[in-house]
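Changelog excerpt

This revision adds worked examples to the README so contributors can see how folded entries look when concatenated. The first example is reproduced verbatim below.
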Amino acid sequence: MNSVRKVTAEDVPGLAILFDAYRVFYEMDSNISAAEQFLTERISKQDSEIFVATDPRNNLIGFVQLYPLFSSTRMKRLWLLNDLYVESAQRGKGISKKLIYEAQQLCIDSNSCGLILETAKKNIIGNKLYPATGFQLDSNHNYYSWDC
């Protein structure tokens, strides 16, 4: 049975491999050592919340990473579900849903006002997954970005 739990520092080497695969999926260059450093910093500085999915042998097979934000209008914490990844061989087994449900539980447990995320319009799987786990598409607002 697959399970989901909060990441530990001991998970970083295995998580870095998954994180690197996630980045490569989004057309970034592979760099496992930089991924390991990035994840170590997020964990040590408590900048994000990371949950990992494991197989019955406790091998890491997926993760979700959330960053805290704040909603001024609601005067509460708001979580950005920034990263979600499951190994390709493990997809279609409900692991992504388990990771999302863990993120939703974090939101409830931290007395937050919600979760937000973005995904590409061409992400067919994600655009089916998110509504299936209770997310609603916001077609009333424009999303803008600025890169430096």
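The second example, added in the same revision:
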Amino acid sequence: MKYSIKIVFSVVLFSFLYVACAQKAAGLNGTLKNAENKDIVLSRLDGKFQPAEVGRTKADGKGSFFIPMKDGFKEGLYKADFGDATTYLVLSTKDKSINIDGDVSELSKFGYKITGSETGIEFHSKMNAIIANQANMTPELAQKEVESCKDPLVQMALSNFLFRGMADFLPLYEKIYKNLQSSYAQSEYTKAYGEIIEQIKQMKDLQKNTSAIAVGQAAPEISLPDPQGKEIALSSLKGKVVLLDFWASWCGPCRRVNPHVVEIYQKYKDKGFTVYSVSLDGVDNRTKSKMDDAMYQTQLNAGKQAWLEAIKKDNLMWPTHVSELKKWDTASAKTYGVNSIPRTFLIGKDGKIAAMNLTPDQIESEIAKLL
């Protein structure tokens, strides 16, 4: 009987030690040539690719190291720094013990061996092949490499490294986003990737609209409310020379140039010149979506108040001040391709664009010609 108890106790002890060792083994380990005594830092990149350290250690005299991950790995993109050398890993929650072996000098080329992670192996294999075949790697071939990946996280990481948000690959990004929604619906990466796609779309629209606005064409109509809620149309000023000015109370460069615009207005207002100011104050749609109705209304009122105070403080005495109070989601800003402020358009008496993006001195010179 005592013998049996001893055996059972030994089995239980062995099982306990096995589990403890298995838990301890969860993490990143390996041996790298030329990594002897180097500091090693493992960071996880968030959805916006900003790194946050998750572990660090120092390699021993043989280049061996171990960074434990007590709570396991979260899915995502990781950055591993070995002294001055860096490599990247795509890991999943399934991963436990990940091993890297090779030479520090080959880290940036992904010229090492990795085991213990399916996503890590796939990402490593793709990057290694792409870098090795860099001379013959066309955008079309690179895109095929991304599309052939099994895991959407690997697709996401590859697309970021290869294309870095270039708008030409928008259809590919949308495919990857659909795959992320299917496999990683709750992941921060899925949400962030969707936001990146929306930003690319907006930038494409701005570029399209910017190229569509040209000197000599009729100024696209704008009709927006003034501070009292009265709609004022840009076309109502036809017959005058008009400076269409996109600005905002929070825009430092706008506020600095305002005194010069006031001087020009005072000098030419009695000769047929005026200013039509479109403010990009307020709350954009993305910010609004994160607020309840009460908070949104509070922020909207604050934006309007800032706009009114800036008009008063800068002595912007012309009567045509309008705003949709939607910041960069202002429809007329998109129509005119405004992606930075201050942005100005000089419109002749005939309602056509006469000049764009002028300095105060240039504005005055052009006004004198038009009048």
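Reviewer comment on example two: Residues 1-24 have pLDDT under 50 and may be disordered. The chain is about 45% helix and 20% strand.
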